[in-house]
């Protein structure tokens, strides 16, 4: 039999080829040998940290960590931590591969059902409001908790809660009432009884479920002073109160049109209107209002117990007023020879027509009104003033023609009232009443103002 055997790149034939091959593999240093596959590594991080990591059931330690010298193949990577569900992942590691693996562990949550008597109690866990009973909680992590239950009219109650696994837990508790009983009588009867601002009945009455500790008791009735008392009651206590109510005095408010009138009550001065008088005994009072330039007014008022009366007195003026407008504005106004002001020009407008000037406190009758303004002829009018009325009058003053400007050209001299100088220097003069003349700037040789004593002026 002939066989070809490869050894160090040579081929030969001989008997006992198998034996020769075995000898060559042992003796010859250049014989080819297979290398072992490269080892890999796995870096593991967990959320939360410090979870215990195992690889194919062999514990490696708390994360984060790196598992070294991992041969090629398939592995089961797991992480475990108390209070969390185990996290697992299957990995395929290639020769020499370096893997980074993140594992997130889901926290274990308990199941808790909370009942109370009465129901509707507020539940706080760790200072956070969680709702009202009956209450099912499915988001509590494993651990120990303090549960606080609160309800109006009941004592707060705290319970311990231990959540160890997913086994449902039921808390069932009864709240102890924190209330007392209060019996209230009033003289006279029929008063409204309020506890801490809440109406609880009409005296005589029995008020149950008054919170223990400090409470504010009020007894209120129309026409009487309200009664108020602070009380401290214990749970289960019963207390009785009998309240003698004090009747309220009468109150009188006096208003006048116009305001600021002097007020007299039974001929005694009490102040200026509007005026409120409290602590008045029931009875009949004579009130009188007086104001300058107005007729006095008196009235009789009868007050009952606890009355709150408002009396309005309308006074009628015994003088009149004058409202005058002028054309133009800025006219001085004299009434019976006395200066009474100047007609105002509208703000930001031409002064051709004035705003009204009001002259008050005029005695009824015929009044002489004189109006003057420089450059205009004075006017005098008679006005009939009526009591408690405003008389209106409009007066137009005629302008006096008084030349105030002289303009010279090469050919002549112009005198008149200066009306305008435009941006180009052209001058507009009123040379005669109502006659306007515009002199071009290029013709003007001089321009000067005129005085009243210049020749040719009035």
In short:
The chain has one helix and 42 strands.
Give an overview of the whole structure.
The chain folds into 7 domains: 1-33, no CATH class; 40-104, Sandwich (Immunoglobulin-like); 109-174, Immunoglobulin-like (Sandwich); 179-244, Carboxypeptidase-like, regulatory domain (Immunoglobulin-like, Sandwich), CATH 2.60.40.1120; 250-314, Sandwich (Immunoglobulin-like); 320-396, Immunoglobulin-like (Sandwich); 405-449. The chain has 1 helix and 42 strands. With 458 residues, the protein is mainly β. The strands form 12 sheets. The protein has a 5-stranded antiparallel β-sheet with strand order 41-40-39-38-42, with no helix packed on it. Residues 1-32 have low confidence and may be disordered.
Q: And the CATH topology of the largest domain?
A: Immunoglobulin-like
CATH class membership of the largest domain: Mainly Beta
Whole-number count of domains: 7
Biggest sheet, spatial arrangement of strands: 41-40-39-38-42
Mean pLDDT across residues: 86
Amount of helix: under 10%
CATH architecture assignment name of the largest domain: Sandwich
Name the overall outline.
Answer: flat
Q: Output the structural class.
A: mainly beta
Main beta-sheet strand count, sense and barrel state: 5 strands, antiparallel
Beta content comes to over 45%
Calculate the terminal CA-CA distance, rounded to whole Å: 166 Å
Number of DSSP E strands: 42
Uncertain runs with pLDDT below 50, 5 residues or more? 1-32
Query: Helix count, per DSSP?
Result: 1
What is the radius of gyration? 56 Å
